[in-house]
Amino acid sequence: MSAVQFSAMPTEDAVHLWNGGHDAYDRVPETMISGGNGYPCRHCLQNIDTGEPLLVLAYRPFPELQPYAETGPIFLHKQPCPRYQADEILPPILSSLDYIVRGYGSDDRIVYGSGAVTPRERISARAEELLGSEAIAYVHVRSARNNCYQCRIDKVEAPDAAIGATA
């Protein structure tokens, strides 16, 4: 039996940006004021409240440049926020009707045929199906309208009931 784990942007990436670092296009992030819904922070995986300052930047959630290393716009609270921790449940930012759920191999490249527009209530189940394939190392959740990166999903093995048993 396995389960899935939702992961936000790594804190070290967010700290780099909060400290004035450059984004994936080597630019300083832009500052905006949130107009309300539609500004999901990729670190805390919460929507950024109306009137709050935010950063708009190019983000590449891959370890190195290569043809499949998609880069796109994301939002981040301008002030530090805690990283999303309820990793076993659907993050609050996933509030649209549907998302693209797509698998990537251990080489960080898209596994062809794995991507599909998926209703919000089926995201966990679809991710678990994809992660059941040896070809898929992790999954991205992306906007079904704009393909923007939302979060990552990894497989988590359930503890083996036999561990700790005595013979």
TrEMBL record:
Which InterPro entries does the UniProt record give? DUF1203 (IPR009593)
Its domain of life reads Bacteria
Recorded protein name is DUF1203 domain-containing protein
The species is Neorhizobium lilium
